[in-house]
Design goal:
The protein is mainly beta. Helix content is 7%, strand content 48%. The protein is built from 1 helix and 6 strands; from the N terminus they run E-E-E-E-H-E-E. The protein has one helix at 59-68; strands at residues 7-13, 18-21, 27-40, 46-58, 74-88, 91-105. Strands 1-3-4-6-5 form a 5-stranded mixed beta barrel. Strand 5 (74-88) and strand 6 form a beta hairpin. The longest helix is centred in the middle third of the chain and has 10 residues, at 59-68.
Length: 141
């Protein structure tokens, strides 16, 4: 039996996306996602609990998220949970992140909702070899 690390969340984006590119050109976009649970307390009053999730997108999905998501957008993300820890000023901090594999935008598209794309770092341009180098190529018909 295989057990998977799988999560599906539907909620509202709590901040404008933080979209960046790594030095090698991989897009990374981070957002916070608010989900809401409603329950009744012992007196029958409806209580609403909001949970915040840190969501990270990579690659082409990160480019789309960075361009089209905005604060308040309703979205469904599917991915996996990643736990981490780091030390700052001698104190160990723990983090929980959702690494998104899929995304479905649920808010209707609004006029002017597209954001400016972040600048992709410049990669060195490779030049094609001169055509003379292919003259002896048997596949060059």
């Amino acid at each position: 039996m295989s057990i998977e690390n799988h999560v599906s969340l539907t909620g509202n984006i709590g901040n404008d996306p933080d979209a960046r590119f790594t030095g090698s050109g991989t897009a990374i976009t981070k957002v916070s996602l608010a989900t809401t649970n409603k329950r009744k307390d012992k007196d029958g009053n409806v209580k609403e609990e909001v949970s915040w999730h840190r969501v990270t997108f990579f690659g082409r999905l990160a480019e789309v998220a960075g361009e089209y998501l905005r604060k308040g957008s309703k979205v469904q993300v599917v991915g996996s949970i990643r736990y981490g820890q780091y030390e700052k000023d001698g104190v160990t901090h723990y983090s929980t992140d959702i690494i998104a594999d899929h995304m479905m935008m649920l808010s209707p598209k609004q006029e002017g909702s597209e954001r400016q794309k972040p600048e992709r770092p410049q990669q060195p341009q490779r030049q094609a070899p001169p055509m003379d180098d292919f003259q002896d190529d048997p596949l060059n018909w």
